[in-house]
Structures are given as structure tokens and as C-alpha cells.
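sry for the spam today, last one i promise. C-alpha cells for design, 186 residues
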């Protein structure tokens, strides 16, 4: 049985959900960003306990099909931007369509209607947050970061970074107080 979970934004969330499942005695096959696959269909009691336990740690089960798709879009983007081992070489629109098995136009319209932002702007917001993290906490230079996040050039990344944050990458790196947007807010 697949369960879709809202606000599951990091590997730490995956570990917290795994711990919850073990505490509740629910056997599972896999825990991924925004998704849990259980070995069996949950009883009403187990389902209710899991639902309550998830709310206690700031997560939420999703029931509506459209909201499930939107959450899958968000989690797919997070995986691509934050957790991909290799740079993404295809267009994000193609990756999302292939992964979610829906036409990109449908996904884009659904996302825009629900979130009030287009998928492309959502991706840019996440990529810029990732750039900020890498500038602050890694030794990567802007060229390496632009390659890792599949920018066409360092100039494109620099322009987009300045447009979104108001800072050049160099200025941001020198700031003592760096501001980051929590992933669950994006």
C-alpha cells in the first residue's frame, strides 16, 4: 500500500517516518521523500495511529488524488535539486513527465492552479536555495555549482541568483547572517 505524506522534505524526515513505523509496528517496504510503501493494507486502527503520529511531527497523510500528484511533483523536484548524485541532463519537464507518468501540460496546469506558482518558478526557487546552501556550506565554486544544478552557464546562474536574492553570489557568500527559506515553506 502506498501512502503519500505532505511536508516530508528531507532525509531526516525519512528517518523520522521510519522510526514512527517501527514504533507503531507497521511493516514497510520503502520510505522515500513524501511516500511510504507498506507491506500490507493498514487496518483502520493502524492507519489512524499513523495519521496522528505523523501530525505530531509536522507531517500529514494526503488522500485527494490531485493533492497526491502535487506532492509528488514537489518531492520529485526536491530529489532532483537536493539529492541527485549526478547532474540532471534532461529538462525537468521531461523528467517529471516520465517519473509521474502524466503529460507535463497537465502537471503544470494542476500545479499552477493549486500553488499559484508555475513549476518552473518553483524549480528556480529550490535551485537558488540549493545554491545558497552550497555557497555557505561547501567548497564548490560557482562554476561547479552551475554544472551540478544544470545551469547553461555560470552567467545564467549568476543573473538568476541576483534576480531572486538581490545579491551577487560573492556578496551572499561574504554575508555573516545568511537567510535560508525552509523547504517546507517553498
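last one done:
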Amino acid at each position: 500500500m502506498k501512502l503519500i505524506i505532505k511536508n516530508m522534505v528531507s532525509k531526516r524526515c525519512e528517518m523520522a517516518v521510519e522510526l514512527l513505523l517501527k514504533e507503531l509496528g507497521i511493516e514497510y517496504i520503502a520510505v522515500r521523500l513524501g511516500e511510504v510503501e507498506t507491506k500490507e493494507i493498514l487496518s483502520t486502527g493502524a492507519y489512524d495511529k499513523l495519521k496522528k503520529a505523523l501530525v505530531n511531527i509536522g507531517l500529514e497523510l494526503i488522500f485527494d488524488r490531485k493533492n497526491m500528484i502535487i506532492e509528488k511533483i514537489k518531492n520529485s523536484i526536491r530529489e532532483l535539486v537536493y539529492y541527485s548524485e549526478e547532474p540532471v541532463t534532461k529538462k525537468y519537464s521531461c523528467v517529471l513527465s516520465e517519473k509521474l507518468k502524466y503529460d507535463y501540460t497537465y502537471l503544470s496546469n494542476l500545479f499552477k492552479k493549486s500553488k499559484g506558482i508555475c513549476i518552473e518558478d518553483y524549480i528556480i526557487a529550490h535551485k537558488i536555495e540549493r545554491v545558497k546552501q552550497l555557497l555557505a556550506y561547501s567548497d564548490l565554486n560557482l562554476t561547479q555549482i552551475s554544472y551540478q544544478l544544470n545551469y547553461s552557464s555560470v552567467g545564467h546562474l549568476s543573473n538568476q541568483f541576483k534576480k531572486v536574492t538581490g545579491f551577487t553570489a560573492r556578496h551572499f557568500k561574504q554575508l555573516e547572517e545568511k537567510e535560508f527559506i525552509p523547504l517546507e515553506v517553498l
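The domain at 2-63 is CATH 3.30.70 (Alpha-Beta Plaits). ok im logging off now
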